Amino acid sequence: MKGIHTKNDSLLTYAVSSNPDPIPVGGSVSLTVVASNNRARLIDCSSIVFSFPVGKLARDFTNSTLGIGTAAPAGWTIAQDEGSFTATPVGGGSVPIGAQGLSFVLTGIAVNSEPGTAYLEIQEQAQAPKVARPPQPPLADEPAGQRTWWTPLAKFPPGFSMSSFDAKPRVVASGGTTTLAWQGSLPASKNPKKHAGTASYVLQYGNTEITHPLGDPSDPLPAKGSYTIDPFDHQTTFYMIASAHLPGDSTPRVLVRECTVTIKPPEITCFHIVGPPVQARSKGAGPAGYEIQLEWTLNEPVPTLYLTRRDASGAGDTALPVNASLTDYRDTPPTRCTTYELTIWRNDMSDSKILEVNMALPVPVGTVSAWFGKDAAKLPQGWLVCDGSVFDQASYPALEPVLGSANVPDLRGYFLRGLDPAGTVDPDGKGRKLGGKQAAAFESHAHDVRMWPWFWNELGKGGSSYLEPANNRTALTTSNFRHVQGSKVTGGNETRPVNVATHYIIFAGIPK
User: Fold this and answer.
1) Structural domains in the chain?
2) Which of 48, 416, 437, 467 has its CA 20 to 30 A from that of 238?
3) Is the pTM of this model over 0.70?
4) Looking at residue 175, what is its pLDDT?
């Protein structure tokens, strides 16, 4: 920040406010220090030390550290050593700090009687581990170490104050604008040194310095005014710096107010599966799987979006071919349990959502079905042909406990019949086991052919082969017929109903 002494290399960002504000010489003040994480990853912090100089000079803040109270956030404690206050996690070690931030309060500080500027020194012991951002380069590792943040504590005599400095709105969308408003106690002047009782007002942010109203370069910024900032796309801290030469002062008194305007972060408002899994069309020679449709919505367009998949095999993350213009993606999970992570980025802000997909089985493991597919090598995912072969137990661990065997059943050429252990319908069902085969059979029966004795004799002599009911032959009774010789052989290789050939397949489960 121009004109202000800073030496900041901390991982966390710090904001300091006082009550009352500005800090009056000779009075009592409370300081609130807010530590926040504006980075796109967690920061591990083991201690934060706040210290200010003790003495009677203008560069000192207080000449007595007695009676100073402290308040720490949940899970933290503060220990005092004169003008140094060390905050550490309860129980020691380090804790991760995310976007929620931490607030520390020092109360009852007796400000010395010398107007001037003291500096609050904040030393943190922290680190930020390396984080992968496929397909972008990874965020570099920030090793553990002590880093420092400095901020001025200006002590003011009565009569010089700035009652307000604020931005509306304080949270804007990327590319939005905000209007800053302020009010100082002294009238504005281009040269306060020549005009006692006046002050100059300068608005600063980043490398920009604004000293006059928009469109009026000849006039200074007024003591009470507003200024609309051009569209911006990252979090920005604005400073209003008021400088005045008060009677008896050889150096200007500088009053600084700050206001941070944050950009509404990109947000994944919804990340879910649309509808049930569907059978995917086979691509190439491999088996087809079950396809799911992932869908997401964002609160605003982002320049960077990526989707990764991690399956239960432990093979690592797979980057899927998506881009920031897409709002959905169809994928065939390679295993039953699959994790998808959607991440979006804009500048240094990001959001991510994780979706755990546990594929529900379409049918119970061991289900047998007819499948009229031309190519047995392109079976639906999780199905195997019932040909008696050994199956891969590592890929289909749920099938062997169902079958009690490492072989799928061999159903080639067979009709299926429901198991009937009681023999209610199947007379041979008692004692029959699952998968037991029955040979072809006719139900036991006999065929009777009855003829008159004379006809039998006539056939043996080459006589007539038909009956003449008009003569006086003996009538047919149960005591005077004879058996006749067998008929000619007719028919095919088996007895069967009308049928169509198909594959019998068995569901072995979603492969691991």
Assistant:
1) 1-157 (2.60.40.2230), 159-264 (2.60.40.10), 268-358 (2.60.40.10), 362-431+498-512 (3.90.1340.10)
2) 48
3) no
4) 86
